[in-house]
Amino acid sequence: MQIRVLNENDIRKVMDMKAAIFATKDALKEYSNGKTDIPLRANLNVPEHNGQSLYMYGYVPGQDALGVKIVSVYPDNIAKNLTSVPATMVTLNSETGEVNSLIDGTYLTRLRTGAISGAATDELANPDSKIFALFGTGGQAETQLEAVLNVRDIKEVRVFDISKDRAKDFVNRMKEKLRNSFDFEIKAVDSADQAIENADIITTVTTAKEPVFDGTKVKKGCHINGVGSYTPEMSEIPEYIITNADKIYVDTFDGAVSESGDFIKPIKNGNFDPDKDITGELGEKLLEKVVGRESTDEITFFETTGSAVLDLVVGQKILEAAEKENIGQIIEM
């Protein structure tokens, strides 16, 4: 049995952000068409080592994608000079059941998480959007920025983080990394209000437990991506936006409603009925089963909590491209 091993550099050689955005759209359409088998994520606690191991797995027949992503959360790894959230994607040959690749799951997660925001922005943001506000500068922030730059002609990026030093460092790194690919200005700002003033697109990718901006100050026509709230305790988006946005979309209905504090808190307060107030899954919009933006003044909101369907489809397309170009290391098992 031959297994292809693909690290971050290998992935970058065979899949850029544009391709990842197309791949996530394919994944969402398969999911919203009911043509996937995606069980609930399995979580294992490892209290002896202050760790947790999560298993996201499934099968997408239409994309010939079968596999499992293993993600661990070990906060103490930082003191050992190791990543605190190591991840590996394992893909299988759906015909034989044999493992056929091991893919860097950490970068895969960053890539597909950025790509799904890019897909939502592409489908929902006003075409002439120019100003982008980004909240958070952690490991997921770079691909969030890159994705939006790929789908809209952004001229001004404002970055806000609770640490101004982190925001400045992020801005400097992104200037260096993206200046040859995109024509835009990027700056760190001192407040959330400064970030969202007249912003056409807002993305939040933080670990916040309280809203990170004032929803009443969001301009008409803005599109918002909520990325960071993937547990009931986490909450980035003001309840005002959840209850007043003109259109609300999610990556997966069950995941977003059961996992995101952005929704769970207003549901508990009796201010939000997901069955009535969520316009639909983004995949349903792509399949034209639900409407998209209907005017330039509408405020649209997209919530993602992540799903194995994204890892499976994007991972499979990475593998296929790597096989075609003979990228990666082959090991015999």
TrEMBL record:
Biological process annotations from GO: carboxylic acid metabolic process
Bilayer-crossing residues are none
One example GO MF annotation: oxidoreductase activity
* Superkingdom, natural source: Bacteria
Instruction: Identify this protein by name.
Output: Ornithine cyclodeaminase family protein
InterPro entries recorded: NAD(P)-bd_dom_sf, ODC_Mu_crystall, ODC_N
The species is Anaerococcus octavius
Checking SUPFAM superfamilies in the record gives:
NAD(P)-binding Rossmann-fold domains
One GO term describing the cellular component = cytoplasm
The Swiss-Prot or TrEMBL record describes its family as follows:
Belongs to the ornithine cyclodeaminase/mu-crystallin family.
- Short name of one Pfam family for this protein? OCD_Mu_crystall
